Amino acid sequence: MNLTEKRMQFILTLRSKGVSDPAVLAAMESTPRDAFLEGIFKERAYEDRPLPIGRGQTISQPSIVAQMTEALELNSRCKVLEVGTGSGYQAAILSKLVRRVYTVERHRPLARAARTLFQELDISNITVVTGDGSLGLPEQAPFDRILLTAAAEDPPANLLAQLKPGGIMVLPVGQTDTVQAMIKVVKTDNGLEYTELGEVRFVPLLAGVAKDTEH
Ligand code: SAH
Predict the structure, then answer these.
(1) Cα 184 to middle of ligand 1, angstroms
(2) Segment (H or E) for 90
(3) Strand 79-83 vs strand 57-59: parallel, antiparallel, or unpaired?
(4) 89 lines ligand 1 (CB under 6 A)
(5) E strands, 10-125, where?
(6) What is the Cα–Cα distance from 122 to 187, expressed in whole angstroms?
(7) Which helix (H) or strand (E) segment is 27 a member of?
(8) Is residue 60 among the annotated active site residues?
(9) C-alpha to C-alpha distance for 111 and 94, rounded to whole angstroms
(10) pLDDT confidence of 179, banded at 50, 70, 90?
(11) Closest ligand 1 atom, CA of 205?
């Protein structure tokens, strides 16, 4: 299969896994996942699998990226916070559907690589911040939507506090060595409403900025 065929097959696979929102499918179709991978993994970019991106981290499985994006019920007025930039792939998808994306990564080299990639791809509505995303970004809060792409034991209180009334937060919860649940939290006038979206497996949400050795 050549690249065009692989990318067509990719969208068919997402559809067969229940992704149906045309805007989400269009965002996935127009985002080159191979650009977010390195070396031998580029060739496998259009498989529906998580893949390594260095620093012991992974780019998420595309059908899960699509499912989380759908669950956020985005519109063009949204200001979104993503915790866990990783490769930047999820942020790039979000950036096509909303006004502004803030994404926080605790590994400085990953944050830097994502920033460079967004420039190369002419994406100008994403701000990448190096830091501990579990604290949120108080200076940019509140957010219409918040997405965590690393698993927390519980929804972090700082992040819930930075969600607008009527806002939606999607995150994997649970211990890392067991199966986690993807949940959707809606902040309503009567409190928080939780919906379980399915089983997932993500890397853990860790505290603090990583002490990476640079090269
Ligand atoms: N969204 C990414 C996949 C993320 S993997 C993508 O599309 O490629 C999860 C990422 O969360 C990892 O890069 C990890 O370093 C980061 N992470 C974990 N805990 C964090 C925290 N407290 N703050 C910011 N980033 C965190």
Answers:
(1) 18
(2) helix 89-95
(3) unpaired
(4) yes
(5) 51-54, 57-59, 79-83, 100-105
(6) 33
(7) helix 22-29
(8) yes
(9) 16
(10) confident
(11) 19
State whether the beta carbon of 105 lies less than 6 angstroms from ligand 1. Answer: yes
pLDDT in tens, 35-75: 999 999 999 999 999 999 988 899 999 999 999 999 999 99
Helix (H, G, I), strand (E, B) or coil at 141: coil
**Calpha distance 84→204 (Å, rounded):** 10
- Does ligand 1 lie within 6 Å of residue 110's CB atom? yes
Alpha-carbon distance of 5 to 112, in angstroms, equals 31
Task: Report CA-CA distances (Å) from 106 to 13, 110, 125, 136.
Answer: 32, 8, 20, 12
Task: Give the CB-side neighbour count of residue 12, counting CA atoms within 13 A.
Answer: 6
Task: Tell me the pLDDT band of 215, cut-offs 50, 70 and 90.
Answer: very low
User: Strand pairing partners for 52?
Assistant: 58
Domains defined along the chain, listed by start = 3-200 (3.40.50.150)
Q: Please give the angle made by the CA atoms of 119, 64 and 104, to the nearest 5 degrees.
A: 40
Q: Are strands 100-105 and 163-173 parallel, antiparallel or unpaired?
A: unpaired
Greater confidence (3 vs 135) lies with: 135
